[in-house]
Amino acid sequence: MSRQRTVIIFKSESESTDVYAEELHRHYFNPIFVPTLSFGFKNLDKLNAKLQHPDDYSGIIFTSPRCVEAVCKALKNNELPGAWKMLHNYAVGEVTHNLAMSDLQQLFTHGKQTGTARSLAEFIIETFDGGKDLPFLLPCSNLAQDTLNLKLHEAGFRVDACEVYETKCSADLAEHMARALSSENIEYMAFFSPSGVNCTYEYFKANNISLDNYRLVAIGPSTRRALESKNLKVHCTAERPTVEHLIKVLINPEESRERLLKESQVALEE
């Protein structure tokens, strides 16, 4: 049997954590999860008021599981008005899509195959077959990047962004980090978000910990850019935030680098 290689995963705990652990173990990786972020909800009454008027919107866009959770909290155990099911609803990634299905009375969302806000915006622009008179409702965080918003605006769409949760560094981050870094055979560190990069970087900097001895894995291009902005070398980048894509680049990082090179060449040509 192959020696298990340890990968520290900087990812908030969710219903997908067990799936990640099981699949990584199956491929001879030893995952250690470090919750890096904490979330606080706000403006839920404001969000609830908007949710009661689906006729004012083209649909709703979920960019993370927390956005779905915010809607659930805003509804206060009441059901989502049924008219939302008739609209154009979207979600980034399968986890967010599945959460909307399970927690919002089988609310179906399009775009689950997209892994980033940018790719979801492109998907909406390419496939939307309705009118653009009404805005999309966009629950978001205080750290939300404007990528999706800007791209949709450029294409003539309207977006009603509602800040419904705050993202902060976990109060227990130092404790979890110290425990994780004491493990043996640490080879990889996988980062799942730009905010997660910022929180962990502050810890490494404060404790004079060099990352040169680890292979840094970015989940998505925005996370890769966040690492590179800290002058950190990225070993490989997963296309989407799924355990399958993570395992794929851990096993075959060269494919990730070739894909990024092609994308860079296309961007330069454009």
Automatic annotation (TrEMBL):
Any single GO CC term annotated in Swiss-Prot or TrEMBL for this entry: cytosol
Protein's GO biological process: heme B biosynthetic process; protoporphyrinogen IX biosynthetic process; uroporphyrinogen III biosynthetic process
UniProt domain Tetrapyrrole biosynthesis uroporphyrinogen III synthase: residue ranges: 18-247
Xref: Gene3D superfamilies: 3.40.50.10090
E.C. number(s) listed in UniProt: 4.2.1.75
UniProt pathway: Porphyrin-containing compound metabolism; protoporphyrin-IX biosynthesis; coproporphyrinogen-III from 5-aminolevulinate: step 3/4
Coiled-coil positions: none
Keyword annotations: Heme biosynthesis, Lyase, Porphyrin biosynthesis
Pfam families xref list: HEM4
Taxonomic superkingdom: Eukaryota
Keyword set includes Lyase: yes
Single GO MF annotation: uroporphyrinogen-III synthase activity
Annotated catalysed reactions: hydroxymethylbilane = uroporphyrinogen III + H2O
PANTHER family with a match to the protein in the record: UROPORPHYRINOGEN III SYNTHASE, UROPORPHYRINOGEN-III SYNTHASE
Function: Catalyzes cyclization of the linear tetrapyrrole, hydroxymethylbilane, to the macrocyclic uroporphyrinogen III, the branch point for the various sub-pathways leading to the wide diversity of porphyrins. Porphyrins act as cofactors for a multitude of enzymes that perform a variety of processes within the cell such as methionine synthesis (vitamin B12) or oxygen transport (heme).
Protein family (similarity comment): Belongs to the uroporphyrinogen-III synthase family.
Name used for this protein in its record: Uroporphyrinogen-III synthase
Organism: Glossina pallidipes (Tsetse fly)
Organism taxonomic ancestry: Eukaryota, Metazoa, Ecdysozoa, Arthropoda, Hexapoda
